[in-house]
Design brief:
The protein is mainly alpha-helical. The protein has 11 helices and no strands. It has one domain.
Length: about 220
């Protein structure tokens, strides 16, 4: 039996490579031809299972269809929120031990504290950031810490909307190379997005305090 294990592993490796090749050569181009509907479907797959360079894909799509850029942003954000439910559900089904195998206890407690303080921002801000931000780790953690599904989906949708709306405006202004600009200037992107998030949080906190005083 032990002698069969390497062969089985090799078979699975070849099977995975064939699936990925079929995805890249057949399915991805087919979905891309669907326009903004394809953007939603590809974003769903990217968030749930199969990694896709979404920024580059959206940059080219928006450049070729500038007048409807907002539909691409809207549907891609919705697809990402729906696709994120898969890692969320896996985390909720008992992912604490899985998470602890990949991060130390200090990092785990830090993430837990973020969710306890403000779970919405703990998901929204990573959703705003471009790769290599560990987005799926926070999505998985949102399930581990049992974030409510409506808030989870709204947080992902909001973060993705902000990120891809900024990308769309840059593409319209600078061309499809804006995706590479964001990728090669990730620090600047993080600072801009982080600044926007801080402004949004300050606005939300001020409204909450005013509402508390009125009550």
């Amino acid at each position: 039996m032990d002698g069969l294990i390497p062969g089985k592993g090799l078979f699975l490796k070849h099977f995975f490579l064939r699936v990925m090749a079929y995805w890249k050569l057949v399915l991805l181009p087919a979905l891309a031809k669907l326009g903004f509907w394809g953007a939603g479907a590809i974003a769903l797959l990217d968030s749930s299972s199969i990694p896709v360079p979404m920024d580059a894909f959206l940059a080219i799509s928006i450049w070729n269809d500038k007048s409807r850029f907002w539909i691409y942003v809207l549907l891609a954000s919705a697809g990402s929120a729906i696709g994120g439910l898969l890692p969320y559900i896996l985390g909720r089904a008992g992912g604490e031990l899985f998470l602890l195998k990949r991060i130390d206890r200090v990092r785990f407690e830090d993430i837990r504290n973020r969710f306890e303080r403000q779970e919405f921002l703990a998901v929204m801000i990573p959703s705003m950031l471009p790769p290599p931000a560990p987005w799926k780790m926070f999505i998985f953690a949102s399930g581990v810490f049992e974030m409510r599904i409506p808030y989870f989906m709204l947080a992902v949708f909001t973060g993705r909307m902000i990120r891809w709306l900024i990308l769309a405006l840059l593409v319209i202004k600078l061309g499809p190379g804006a995706a590479d600009l964001i990728a090669h200037h990730a620090l600047v992107t993080v600072l801009v997005v982080g600044g926007l998030a801080a402004i949004g949080f300050a606005w939300w906190w001020a409204r909450k305090r005013r509402a508390g005083k009125l009550i």
